[in-house]
Amino acid sequence: MLEVRPMEPLENCPRETLAAVRGVLTDIDDTVSSEGTLTAEAYGALQALKKAGLLVVPVTGRPAGWCDHIARFWPVDAVVGENGAFWMWHDRSQKRLRTRFIQSEAERAEGRRRLERVRAEMLQEVPGAGIASDQPYRLADLAVDFCEDVPPLPAAEVRRIVAIFERHGAHAKVSSIHVNGWFGDYDKLTTSLTMMRELFGIDLAVDKAAYVFSGDSPNDAPMFGYFPNAVGVANVVDFADLLEHRPRWVTSGRSGAGFVELAKALLAARA
């Protein structure tokens, strides 16, 4: 049974709650980005949060190749990628990129081998689906495109993709554009908890009220359920019936505009 949790407008969030926030973890696609584009306003919101002294960490289903760029060039402290397969950060004192994988190289290699079988069956059984264009830059998962670079598939076909992954014993999560599947007991939440503890010395079990997660789709549900002041951008309502956990607050703006709205609310409360 899906959890029924009311989502209140972000404008109703108490100022003191927002003022107490020390960091923002955020999905990227259709949360920071808008229709596949990173706007200047959304990028500026990331930069403004970082400049104000908040911890900023994207938590995304996007691939290692993208995360390398994000960790190096975006105004962020680290990035969790491929739905929790690893995190990356740019060690500025050593002037080098660092990566912490959740699984060993042997485990990742075995997972990729098993995913090749899934991939073959997926393309045969769901002919309208495509392998995500960013798949060559992935290290641990298989991303199946159902609307980014292919004509949008019906919800029944998306569920069929999930079922094929699960038939093989893989985890499968639906984002706003892909179904991501992998072998391994991790997700966005478990890796974020480990990263915050190992990299920043922050125990979210104690301090989770001081951190906000923003997202928009079903693969963000574990984060929505964990963070008491999680924020969904307005398009999260499109997936409301599919969310096992819903965010506490919701912006009036969709996608990147919603993220800008969240950043402005946090910065105004601090001021």
Structural class assignment: alpha/beta
The total of beta strands comes to 13
Overall 3D geometry?
globular
Radius of gyration: 18 Å
The string of secondary-structure elements, in order, is EHEHEHEEEHEEHEEHHEHEEH
The main sheet comes to: 6 strands, parallel
Report strand order across the widest sheet.
1-13-12-11-2-3
Total tally of structural domains: 2
The unreliable regions are none
CATH architecture of the largest domain: 3-Layer(aba) Sandwich
User: How much strand content do the residues show?
Assistant: 15-25%
Number of helices: 9
Mean pLDDT: 96
CATH topology of the largest domain: Rossmann fold
Q: How much helicity do the residues have?
A: 25-40%
CATH superfamily membership of the largest domain, which one? HAD superfamily/HAD-like
Name of the top-level CATH class of the largest domain: Alpha Beta
Give the CA-CA distance, first to last residue: 41 Å
